[in-house]
Specification:
Elements: H1 29-38, H2 48-77, E1 86-89, H3 96-103, E2 109-110, H4 114-118, H5 123-133, H6 157-164, H7 184-187, H8 193-213, E3 218-222, H9 230-236, E4 241-246, H10 249-267, H11 277-295, E5 304-308, H12 309-314, H13 316-327, H14 333-345, H15 358-367, H16 369-374
Length: 398
């Protein structure tokens, strides 16, 4: 009898209150209305109040966005990007968030906050007020794991692009029972040059506004979809540095499925059924890494480094020092103490654990075979899944 456990919602997802903001609350109105029309307003009755609230917020966002551009637009456009960003890439749940949290401890670095990614159109006007007075509206933890949530926490810039109206595969989580949306924007397959240029300008627009508030610091960005966009981003930032996280797929795949289930449940306007979730995860991987392996050859060797998640959690300071040396990021010593303080504070972190059934493992080994061979996961001893007793290295990526 086939195993269909991947279609069930995990019972241990952290509660996400109905009144808590969703990513769509920060959208501009034209982007929100366009998404509703594409999905023919197929909102589940229980999600109609949320959709109504989002409609009101997006109208306000658009008005505030015009006010921000009137007040700040000229000054922002003159902000120089003296240091090209650092991009942390890799498949979802490969440890990109953990590495992001470590690298932003360096006082010379900065990052887009959750609020900036949530409200890209007007954060220059509203961020200080919201961080000071509206922190209570977010839950204490992210829905998919035990990492803390907060307006000032680092976040993926992909959500900012969604809010601005840029097409993205992340829009799938809004209507998870409809066909997957905008997968071509994962790797720009079948996307014409004019649309790619528009995407590039949108990314630069957002990065410049982040840089405007912290002009002396180097921006560290983390977004898994950028894994298959090396060419397009390098055209914007030829001197960008890339850190590519990898992890054993036998742990990575079930963790990614849990991620999407949590986001479909907390962010969706439909009650998700997850029927095609496993195939969606597999398809995204295949497209992402076909493009990544093709494009990485054009990146200079000293601008891109592969980092294994299992080694990062075992020896984080040593791995960071190697990253700094390989990518010529300067002296690591100013970052050592703040990174160690962060690690000490996270000592009590409780990771999620995943069971891996034999049928799912067989599919992973078959469809991820190239990835497993290239990055050294083609032996059973490398897995950090729960088939065996967990070791310290099996901590869930954060």
């Amino acid at each position: 009898m086939p195993d269909d456990s991947h279609k069930k919602q995990p019972k241990d997802l952290n509660h996400y209150p109905l009144w808590a903001p969703r990513f769509w609350h920060g959208m501009l109105f034209p982007a929100w209305w366009s998404m509703l029309r594409r999905h023919r307003f197929r909102v589940h009755p229980t999600r109609i109040p949320m959709a109504c609230a989002v409609t009101g917020f997006t109208a306000a966002n658009s008005a505030l966005a015009k006010l921000q551009e009137w007040g700040y637009g000229k000054a922002v456009e003159q902000t120089p990007l003296d240091q090209s960003p650092i991009f942390i890439v890799g498949h979802w749940r490969s440890g990109t968030t953990f590495l992001h949290e470590l690298m932003i401890r360096d006082p010379r670095h900065t990052f887009p906050t959750t609020y900036e990614c949530f409200s890209p159109g007007h954060f220059l006007l509203t961020e200080k007020f919201v961080q000071k007075f509206m922190g209570f509206v977010l839950p204490a933890k992210r829905p998919m794991d035990n990492m803390p949530a907060g307006w000032d926490r680092p976040q993926e810039d992909e959500f900012a692009l969604c809010g601005m109206g840029v097409r993205s595969p992340y829009l799938t989580m809004a209507f998870p029972n409809d066909p997957a949306e905008d997968l071509d924007y994962l790797d720009f397959e079948n996307v014409d040059e004019a649309e790619i240029k528009e995407w590039q300008q949108s990314l630069k627009w957002f990065i410049q506004r982040v840089a405007y508030t912290r002009p002396q610091q180097r921006i560290v960005l983390k977004s898994p979809p950028h894994t298959s966009r090396l060419k397009e981003i390098s055209e914007l930032f030829p001197d960008a540095r890339w850190v590519h996280m990898v992890r054993d797929p036998r742990s990575l795949v079930p963790s990614t499925m849990r991620l999407w289930k949590s986001l479909y449940t907390s962010q969706g306007f439909q009650v998700p059924h997850y029927d095609d979730l496993l195939e969606y995860v597999m398809r995204c991987y295949e497209r992402m890494y076909a493009r990544f392996e093709e494009q990485r050859t054009a990146i200079p060797e000293n601008r891109l480094l592969d980092v294994r998640y299992e080694e990062l959690v075992q020896e984080p300071l040593d791995q960071l020092q190697q990253i700094y040396a390989h990518l010529d990021l300067g002296d690591f010593e100013p970052a050592r103490e703040p990174v160690q303080q962060y690690l000490d504070a996270q000592a009590a972190y409780q990771p999620n654990r995943h069971k891996l059934d034999l049928e799912l493992e067989s599919q992973i080994v078959n469809r991820w075979s190239d990835y497993m061979r290239r990055y050294g996961y083609d032996t059973a001893s490398n897995t950090d899944s729960d088939k065996a007793a967990p070791s310290p290295a099996s901590a869930e990526p954060r």
